[in-house]
Amino acid sequence: MANRNSFLQPRPFLLLTLSLIIIAIAAASVDGSDDGAFSRPPARNVLITPHARAESEPQQVHVSLAGKDHVRVTWITDDKHVSSVVEYGTTEAGPAGKYEATASGEHTKYRYFLYASGTIHHVRIGPLKPNTVYFYRCGGIGPEFSFKTPPATLPIEFAVVGDLGQTEWTQSTLQHINGSDYDVFLLPGDLSYADSQQPLWDSFGRLVEPYASRRPWMVTEGNHEVESFPIIFPHGFKAYNARWLMPHTESGSSSNLYYSFDVASGLVHVIMLGSYTDFDSHSDQYTWLAADLAKIDRKATPWVVVLLHAPWYNTNEAHQGEGESMRSEMEELLYDNRVDVVFAGHVHAYERFTRVYDNKADPCGPVHVTIGDGGNREGLALRFKKEAVSAPLSLYREPSFGHGRLRIVDEKRAHWSWHRNNDSSSVVADEVWFNSLSASEECWPRKGGNVDGGGGLSARVGLDEL
């Protein structure tokens, strides 16, 4: 059997937010914050987003990357007779609906106890030009949407946020992300927090549509996507797999729970791993990961980024040790292939580590970042372990809602910033510059290195070099 822990089971649904009293009692100052006057905010109300269109019109529209020069458009209709067709082009069509190209796809639906989903359409379109705005219409009816494809070269910018949910803080996070342009949205698990209440999946899809229909959203599963039930739904992920189809087939994966994709003409390779499916050394995921990493030529692909849900490194009191079994199985693979950065969610706080491997600082290990603070209904994980203040690996930690930005500037340098939600404004609370490990002669001794560089961090909390 695979390595599975008791925490894989879905949690009971919490109807309301945490109370202000609990927040006030639990809150404590956290080392690393650059704003001593900042007071961490309380949780906010859950949002329910209604369906405001006709049954035949598309809802919950989102786009995702689907192989070289292609994008997958996904939407849902209540009318089962709507065709799985996308019309698209580089010119705004308007009411006349004159587009340059048309593509057909597939549709599916699912049942979960008494719930029956609408018709879920998936259409792969392309080939598409890079860094280009495309206008499109789903099913030949309803509003016109548009999205922009990622650039063919660097720089490229990712918005990164985990444990998103659908609360007023979620809405604030999305508005802050949308306030500055980006190319691809990365979400390391815990999307809707439906927890088996399927109408919440529909509500989430409608909430994120204004954003997910405009830029590619690439997601992997978290514990709140499992939704398993003994005998009836023993394998889980029924709603997640039906609604959020990712390019696993295009990347040689047999499961929608883990996959990879390239951006910027292969200069950046992104790997999405599954914390809640088999991952030991005999598993399909492990075999796939080893093969996927082995295909990468770091001279052609200087950047490798990994996302997963349960963090392998964590000084917060919440979810201690829950990523340890996966770390012990897979960390060496990532280290040997010089993965540059690993993003995780699950813990509802922000934390950034130095380059690390096997619980020790290592200039050839990846930077680990926990960013499970998107806006979930469970509130923040407020308590860090006391010894974290002097921990040599943890460089910055703060239990606040926010999002991250990874801007890969060129083949050697990238800039990471964490933007704290602070009411109407987005505040940069932590940022760091670091180099690609492909540029490090120290980290590729047998290959002699291919670019001048050091592999170690040039970090800042207020841009102080470490």
Automatic annotation (TrEMBL):
Q: What does the UniProt keyword field contain? A: Glycoprotein, Hydrolase, Signal, Zinc
Question: Which N-terminal residues, if any, form the signal peptide?
Answer: 1-28
Entry cofactors: Fe cation; Zn(2+)
Q: What GO molecular function annotations does the UniProt record carry, in alphabetical order?
A: acid phosphatase activity; metal ion binding
Catalytic activity from the UniProt record: a phosphate monoester + H2O = an alcohol + phosphate
Q: What class of enzyme is it?
A: hydrolase
Pfam families, per database record: Metallophos, Metallophos_C, Pur_ac_phosph_N
The EC number of this protein is 3.1.3.2
Q: Does the keyword Zinc apply?
A: yes
Every copy of the Purple acid phosphatase C-terminal domain together lies at 365-428
Task: Please report the stretch or stretches of sequence annotated as the Purple acid phosphatase N-terminal domain.
Answer: 58-149
Judging by the UniProt lineage, the source's domain of life is Eukaryota
InterPro entries found in the cross-reference section: Calcineurin-like_PHP, Metallo-depent_PP-like, MPP_PAP, PAPs-like, PAPs_C, PAPs_N, Purple_acid_Pase-like_N
Which intervals hold domain Calcineurin-like phosphoesterase?
158-350
**Has keyword Zinc?**
yes
Q: Family per UniProt? A: Belongs to the metallophosphoesterase superfamily. Purple acid phosphatase family.
The name under which this protein is listed is Purple acid phosphatase
